[in-house]
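Re: that backbone. Tokens:
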């Protein structure tokens, strides 16, 4: 498939040439500290034995979805390993938080969709970004890369944008403990079918989508400085909080900020993440039509189909059925009126848009390079790392899908013309032994929306 090699090279050039045109990108709301630990079999087995292996294995069968004691912590880790799936549970016990802190981490990294995208867009792509940082402690601020990355600071009626390291404040470190494991990782009789991670989330701010005062009171001034906004972090919302407030209060605030963005003509992308609460998911879907674009993976699209479609379609999407996935994307577009839907899964990406152009496909190709580079290095630091990913082989397993689309839908060069819509499809680059998996989805979605948008300026 020589075709894709040429398309990949052109896409890299086209996107990187256009990126300097972007004046600014707003990234909100979730920024935190990720403490990454690469699990080791012996250490994990000993810890599980100490808290009681039998009880932990019982809990793996009935996953509690939150962490109130050590048994639940290890059940979460084992559940992820057993299924090779990502999961994120809140830590509701101070004792467990202390334990996690003592167990420690191998590496501290920027965490949260907004934070990760800030380092990628601002630090690596050098596009100016304004980012929401709930608690800008020394540890948090120290994780921001150099580059045009800003947080807003207001004093009296004046306003300035400064690098997060120039705005360090007292506060709490919002730590998410990330337990990464490779494919084939063994613990007792369990073996991981694929690489993935479990997240123990010890963070009381992002859990409620905390919004800083500057963002609540001066949002318009911030929005005037950008021409694209990427919104994320709503997935953690609970239906009701102990003080009587609900997820609705947060969604209303987001909706009013979205109205400001739309009035100013700022394009907006919503980055979906697995949203456990069905009510919250429904609330988010109702708001989608006010965004320009949405990004999601197969699990997330299936969870959306549980609401706007039916469980059969959801099941087919989850099983990787290509044409069912395209149906699901069309249905989501019909139901919400959104202009762009970007779907990503292991091995290929698709974008359904209400407009046409090769720039949509090119942006997906560029995103696949960024994802491969992220998988290879764990942390992206320089643009040439993305270019180097051109040498990673294109996923051959997606070629039968390309052929099916060419046959059934007259796809040419990764583009299907659907009278009032366009579908772009790309086979991606797969890194055989990724360093880590956390943050790849964010890298894909933000690279694609930025790469596409830059070329329209
Ligand atoms: P998410 O499911 O949103 O966390 O995003 C994970 C995405 O990362 C998957 O959909 C893949 O497209 C991509 N990905 C995962 N592992 C690799 C890998 N080894 N090489 C390249 N891309 C990967
Ligand atoms: C979630 C996690 C965060 C992680 C991010 C990566 O937001 O809470 O810790 O960095 O996902 O996508």
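Recovered sequence:
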């Amino acid at each position: 498939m020589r075709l894709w090699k040429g398309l990949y090279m052109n896409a890299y050039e086209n996107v990187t040439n256009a990126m300097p045109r972007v004046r600014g990108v707003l990234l909100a709301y979730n920024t935190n500290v990720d403490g990454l630990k690469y699990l080791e079999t012996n250490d994990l087995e000993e810890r599980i034995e100490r808290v009681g292996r039998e009880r932990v294995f019982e809990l793996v069968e009935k996953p509690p979805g939150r962490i109130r004691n050590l048994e639940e912590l290890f059940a979460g880790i084992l559940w992820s390993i057993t299924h090779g799936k990502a999961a994120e549970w809140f830590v509701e016990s101070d004792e467990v938080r202390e334990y996690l802190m003592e167990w420690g981490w191998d590496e501290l990294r920027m965490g949260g969709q907004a934070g990760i995208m800030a380092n990628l867009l601002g630090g690596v792509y050098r596009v100016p970004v304004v980012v929401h940082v709930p608690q800008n402690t020394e540890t948090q601020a120290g994780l921001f890369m150099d580059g045009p990355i800003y947080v807003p600071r207001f004093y009296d009626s004046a306003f300035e944008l400064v690098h997060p390291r120039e705005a360090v404040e007292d506060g709490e470190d919002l730590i998410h403990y990330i337990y990464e494991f490779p494919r084939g990782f063994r613990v007792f009789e369990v073996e991981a079918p694929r690489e993935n991670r479990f997240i123990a989330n010890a963070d009381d701010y992002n859990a409620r989508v905390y919004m800083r005062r500057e963002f609540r009171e001066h949002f318009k001034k911030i929005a005037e400085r950008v021409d694209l906004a990427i919104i994320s972090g709503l997935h953690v919302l609970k239906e009701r909080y102990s003080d009587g407030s609900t997820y609705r209060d947060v969604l209303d605030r987001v909706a009013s900020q979205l109205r400001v963005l739309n009035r100013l003509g700022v394009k907006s992308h919503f980055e979906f993440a697995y949203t456990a609460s069905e009510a919250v998911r429904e609330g988010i879907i109702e708001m989608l039509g006010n965004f320009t674009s949405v990004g999601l993976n197969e699990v997330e699209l299936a969870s959306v189909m549980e609401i706007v479609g039916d469980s059969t379609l959801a099941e087919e999407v989850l099983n990787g059925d290509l044409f069912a996935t395209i149906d699901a994307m069309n249905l989501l577009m019909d139901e919400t009126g959104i202009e762009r839907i970007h779907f990503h899964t292991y091995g290929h990406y698709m974008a359904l848009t209400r407009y046409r152009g090769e720039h949509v496909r090119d942006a997906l190709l560029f995103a696949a390079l960024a994802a491969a580079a992220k998988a290879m290095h764990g942390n992206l630091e320089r643009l040439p790392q993305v270019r180097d990913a051109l040498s990673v082989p294109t996923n051959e397993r997606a070629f039968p899908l390309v052929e099916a689309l060419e046959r059934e839908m007259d796809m040419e060069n990764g583009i299907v013309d659907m009278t009032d819509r366009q579908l772009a499809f790309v086979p991606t680059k797969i890194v055989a032994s990724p360093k880590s998996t956390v943050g790849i989805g964010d890298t894909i979605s933000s690279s694609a929306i930025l790469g596409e948008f830059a070329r329209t300026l």
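The chain has a mean pLDDT of 96. DSSP finds 18 helices and 19 strands in the chain.
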